[in-house]
Amino acid sequence: MKIRRGFTLVLAAVLTVVLIMLPGCGGDNNGGSSNPNSGPDVSGTGVSGKGRFVEKIITPENANIIAAGRLEDGTLRAYGEKLAQIYESSDNGNTWVEKAGPGIENVTKVKTMPDGSYIVATGSYDGTVPCSIKMVSADGKVSDIPIAELDEAAAKGDTAYIEYLEIVGNGLIYLSFMPNMGGMMMADSDVDSGLGNQPEGVIVAENGEMNSVGGEDAPSDENENGDDAGPGLSFSNFGTDIVSGIYNIETGEKVYTPKTGNLGGFSEVLAYEDKIYYIGYDGSVSIRNAETDEELSHSSTPAAENMMNFTLKSYGIFSGDMYSIDSNGIMKATGNNTYETIVKPAGFNFSLGNSYISDFIPISESQFIVGLGEQEEYKLYRIEYDENAVVNEKKVIKIWSLENNTNIRNGITEFLKNNSDAEIDYEVALNNGGALTAEDAVKNLNTEILAGNGPDIIVLDGLSPENYVNNGMLEELSGAVDTSGVYEKLVDKVSGGVYYLPTSIKVPMLLTGDENLKNIGGLKDLSDIIQNGKDKPVFDSENPFSVVEEENRPVMDFGEFDELFELLWKSSQNKIIENNSINTENLKTLAEGLKAISDKYKLFAEDELTSVAAVSIASGGEMDVISGSLMSYMSKQANAGGGILGNVSTSTLFGSDVEYLSFPGLETGTFVPVGVLGINSKSDKKEFAASFIEYMLSDDKQGKHGNGFAVTPSGTKIQKEEKIKMGDDEVDITMDMEKVMESLVSPVYVDKTVSEIVKEHTLNYINGESTLDQVIGEIQNAVKNYLAERAR
Amino acid sequence: MQLKTTLQNGRDKKKIRVRNPDFRAAMLFMAPSLAGISLFFIFPFADTIKRSFFDTAGVNFVFFENYSSAMRNESFRLSAYNTARFIAVCIPLLLVVSLLLALLSNFIGKRAGGFKMVFLLSMAVPVASIVLLWQLLFHDNGLVNTVLMAAGADKISFMYSDAAFWVLVGTYIWKNMGYDMILWLAGLDGINKALYEAAYVDGAGAVRCFRYITLPSLLPTVGLVTVISLLNSFKVFREAYLVGGAYPHDSIYLLQHLFNNWFLNMDISRLCAAAVMLCAVLLTVIILLQRFLRGEDD
Predict the structure, then answer these.
(1) ipTM score here?
(2) Which pTM was predicted?
(3) pLDDT at A185
């Protein structure tokens, strides 16, 4: 009896230990993540006055602000447009006093000195206005700071743009500029090609080849033959040598050139007391003595997840501690190359994709001033910890996504504006190129879900939604989310139920104004027409976008094979993978089509030079890449262009006589669902999660151009009616979105495993290393197990 | 009367065990280990068995549907076949090779230190290095193919043909033979030397000694080495995965590949069913092996 009792005692002890440990492994259903924006729930009732970071808009009323700064005595200062007005606040932006400014044209940068005077850089972003450095004293007196290099550049007729201007202290400034600087502009040819005339939010990008286009002989709007270089394109030079140095404010003399070569270039320069912080592109920081340039410390690259966003990242210093701000939140450097998250980004305007962080001023450990450029308007925000802010625990949810989705990120911030007592943690698994692989990320997600510890909402992009439905991991949405406003064809039904919904779509499209090309039936037709059409024109590296006479233009053109493959795959996948097996006949047609087009346009010819410049167009959320094919069409070097589009603003680049057709792959009418949302069936906050999905489907969200092609008819209508800002002009949407929506038939959830295998093996066929039958056999073998695993 | 005596004896035995003062201490010492095993093996395995009878969400009881679905699945059948084939080829081969090495080492005697070290070194080589070595040797343009081509033979696609299976077998044996050799040596050391001396006096040769003294004496070691080798054979998945990825050539597509991929696809129920079946098969094999060896021993 005693033995049994002893054994029972031990077993009970073991079980007790196990039971105590089990909850410790789990956590609540919010991912067990602690949100630094808020403290613990103390009431246990769901609603708690626990305090959190909040955002307050503090832009002076009716003011057009261009920059902000802070004086030594704590006065916050905002600078009005053309420095016509200066606004000062002694209570961190609650109230402002307006003063008359000196009035200076073409101001690009303003930096505030501790005593109230300030340094101004003038010029223009495209380098067309000569730049200069001026000093404005506290009483408003303006004087030029003569910088010899800038004067020399101006005397030679070179353009320049001040890249960095930082006040170092002790009568010194840090200055960095690029003489002979310019950029490729895309704008309507009827208007100036300045940045202000682009569609809102256009991001101009260029690849290595484009960089080499510049030089003294770079083409302008007109080429040598006097032809128009195509609608919306103009060019200017790219400089190469950056001039930087520490200059004397009084004399403009260069005191020294900082020896920051060990950083390999830097993204930001900050000054604090007698030190200068040079922040490298990889996040490493070199702290140097401002007077002697002696390096005081050099930290290497911090954790990868905190980096990579350098173009949209800004830094500030408070009390010797360095803070950074970007779409990942506000972080504090804690030494040891790590950053501690102080403010998570969800709910704050600085995390919006269409905002640009212009100024960042930490004024205490829990108070930050942020100047944001939002759609050509500068706004000032104060982010501070509010001890009395209330958080409703029933409205604390987690959204998981494999990759960042700007549209969802923006949606969270916008949604939280109307739900001030809510918190949404947006977890991006593959954040900024960290060490985690997609496979690991999915494994982590699955483990969390199985442990009942998963996110409340799953963004299913890059996953297989059907798997999650079939395994009962997603909640049926019909009762929780009103789907009546969504295009019926976009609502996937699995076993009669709706388990996930796209929040926008992208469509593989053929753009053409050529009547003969508008009725292409499918891939075979397209391939034949391309075969019988003109060859690609010889690439002119001196004049890459010169117009080709209409009768000499090829049907289409592609910059590279990947672009062609992606387009054809997304318009063919459903016909290749049928019932968990490969349709060999269709696969053959695809491979033959790929080979025919690649051969025709010599995509693999070693000596072939092509224009593969890609431009991204965005207005907040979805970004369209104007690939080589669309670029060729746009610059009138081909009669049609193909691309995967998701932003109606893109149509402003192509004029009004273009028809937007569903791309003729193995099937026509395919579309790619984007931002596909499902609710975790184990979530205990399904109701609130559903309200977020409803917001994403609302007209507020769906009606904005930047949020991708709308998934609701009303959203499409609003987008169509909304005009696009191009500088001071407003332009109509020329894309007939309703017609595009009518043409859509079936969704494509890209199967990356199969597409990669098909691409890899098809290349062997195109390069002549294998026969078509060999390649088909290889593909069959390679995907056999993958597809068989899914069969039930 | 006889029954009463037995019961009485039983009670006496019980009493003796109760009075054993070490029992409670033994249980207490075992408690942490028991807790660990329960937490990390017994409870999860019980959960796996439970999940194998439910859908993935763990809501609906589906009887043996997951089992039959797994059995019907072509990938499961292929991977189970490959795993069984791998074990069937590797284990006997490894036992023989490592035993021969142990005997050789025993024969060399005290000067066998360097010999043993050579075979044990493979255990110290990290998997990543083995994979690199594999690629260096067996890539289409690797060392082995270079030698083959220099000798006028055709290239062999080691990674994408049935040769991949034999490369995996070779890797497994190379990696494990040193360890098994040590186990055999421990078994050989346990054999009473007087037996050999008596046999030699009786005129027995080396072969007869091996057949009638060494082999029977090593039977308990056979069980141990076999079970350890069997369990180690599942670790070869790391090499196969690192070289061939989630979907390697058919011949080295093992059960662990399938499990890994089913987990990624959230096909948890079938994964659990397959895992339970694998466990049952392994358990059966080990029990049969033990019985067989015990029978031989008796």
Answers:
(1) 0.81
(2) 0.77
(3) 38
